[in-house]
Design a protein that fits this description.
binds magnesium ion, alpha/beta, 10 helices, Rossmann fold, Alpha-Beta Plaits, binds adenosine-5'-diphosphate
Amino acid sequence: MSTPPAISINNVVKRYAPPKGADASEGKLALKGVSFDVPEGGIFGLLGPNGAGKSTLINILAGLVTKTSGSANIWGFDIDEQPRNAKRSIGIVPQEIVFDPFFTPYEVLQNQAGFYGIPEALRRSEELLAAVRLADKRNAYARTLSGGMKRRLLVAKAMVHSPPILVLDEPTAGVDVELRRQLWELVTELNREGVTVVLTTHYLEEAEELCDRIAIINHGELIANKPTKDLVGMAREKVVAVTVAGEISKAPSHETFSRCELTGEQTIEITYDKDKNTAGQVLGILQDQGFAIEDVTTREADLEDVFVQLTGAG
Ligand code: ADP
Ligand code: MG
């Protein structure tokens, strides 16, 4: 038995309005018929380079952008037919931080609860402030909060109506390492409590570490959608780093190497297709070319390598 998906996106197309006076076909085609499901209960990563269409898709789910065609449902509610129920089922942390600078964190949450029509007695403002570690900033003006605190306040704001799904759009862009770690702890904690999490990012490492499933979008098209470990496993390449005796005057080359890079006076990194060759063969070629090998390490390709393969970027 399988549970229904938390979010289902079917052939969603978005063409933005063209600049004034231009032909309709000149409007940017940001999504070219995207379909995928977000399973319930996990942390789902929507990856893609800047301009791929991630925010467009999130904003369609949030009801902030109207799609051109296709359909989507959130927690079983069609976003066109049951928009209120769909919106109540999702909490969205937008890419841009926008607050009225003269409200306090407490007021921001109370106002949001009011917006959802949550009666005073059922509001969770104090609890949420504590959860995002902002209890001591309860009465500070929002404008005096640091960037990281504002992000955390936005997470609390998105959770005011206790939605089963939390979506974070590029939550760590421009956030320092320590705050990023805090944010991930918070997200993992919410997920452990049962919240389905979707996050968009262009940091591959982050997605690899946090997400159990990853979809990749590029130029408005879905190019992958797999469990993280399968995606990483797709990397066909392996890298062998070699230290040789004596200075290297010229990088070795061979048809077996997909890349060869001098990384120091005595060190080279060679990338090869692990389905076709072994590290032993690579080392044999180097020895044949007269290199005396002193030390060797190998590493599997990571998500970054897969990404480069799939998008043809790099
Ligand atoms: P991402 O979030 O993946 O960086 P976006 O969804 O923001 O990508 O943008 C996708 C494409 O749509 C980009 O080419 C962007 O310039 C364009 N775009 C985004 N918003 C608008 C808009 N309001 N009007 C016209 N084009 C837009
Ligand atoms: Mg974006």
